[in-house]
């Protein structure tokens, strides 16, 4: 099993990257590549099949090592240039000099990563997701949380230090639980509990999810979130797997849980709907991606699963195939 964004081939060089001499040497190597992020979007070739564009330093003549974020070193393999081990840095396009920005306008096109994940190699999707998350962190932590003065990027872009009180900030990851809740009904048919938000595409349903509260175990978060969103009593949370979700700064922690109640009540939370679905119903779901067309024969939208790149679609599919869960 392999979930999108979790196939990082790069060694993050956690120890080496703090060494400025080592970092500068990596920065100046000809084979080093740079991954640009522009308002959350990544740079792709203009062809129909989207290939990410990694730039060389000669294409970024005004770039300095201090304005880059070190992602790591490794072989990017199939889908990119070759299998040679090389360092990769992330760069915020908006911090480049205007003249450099102008020169890059014809190089490719800017696209949201999640829109093209399905067409990318697992490695490219993981690198681009990390770059997106870290660039966002720098943009959203420009000022010190203690005294309000400006922060500056240090430690190869993996920390920011206050220019006044020297307080250090580090990128955080917010844990979120996401759970496939199941129940064996009196009719002898197992069902799982899925919900939808009003802003989602018509007919799209997903596993319930929510952020872990301070001072709470993951298992407690599963039970609380299911109760908050649907008034269903859930028990025996079982951890399944996790998925990095740096959009902007989460990790999704996948669970199964067994419901001991049946009546759904969404009035206490902001879900648009929640329903129990049998495997027979789930088998007719389509994976939601941009190519999905709504049924032309009727006004009723076809039920859709959440995006194929998400752990939600993995949990639902795995339960459908009886790979996870008790029932
Ligand atoms: Zn400060």
Keywords for this structure?
6-stranded mixed sheet, 327 residues, alpha+beta, binds zinc ion, 2 domains, single chain, Nucleoside Triphosphate Pyrophosphohydrolase
Explain this structure to me?
The chain folds into two domains: 16-140, Nucleoside Triphosphate Pyrophosphohydrolase, CATH 3.90.79; 174-320, Nucleoside Triphosphate Pyrophosphohydrolase (Alpha-Beta Complex), CATH 3.90.79.10. It contains seven helices and 17 strands. It has helices at 20-28, 98-104, 113-116, 122-140, 218-230, 279-282, 311-320, and strands at residues 33-38, 41-44, 68-75, 85-92, 109-112, 151-154, 159-162, 168-169, 174-184, 190-196, 204-205, 208-211, 234-245, 250-259, 273-278, 286-288, 304-307. The strands form four sheets. Strands 9, 10, 12, 13, 14 and 15 form a six-stranded mixed beta sheet that branches. The chain is elongated. 36% of the residues are buried. Mean pLDDT is 92; it is low at 290-297. Bound molecules: zinc ion. Residues 144, 146-147, 149, 162, 164-165, 167 line the site of zinc ion (ZN).
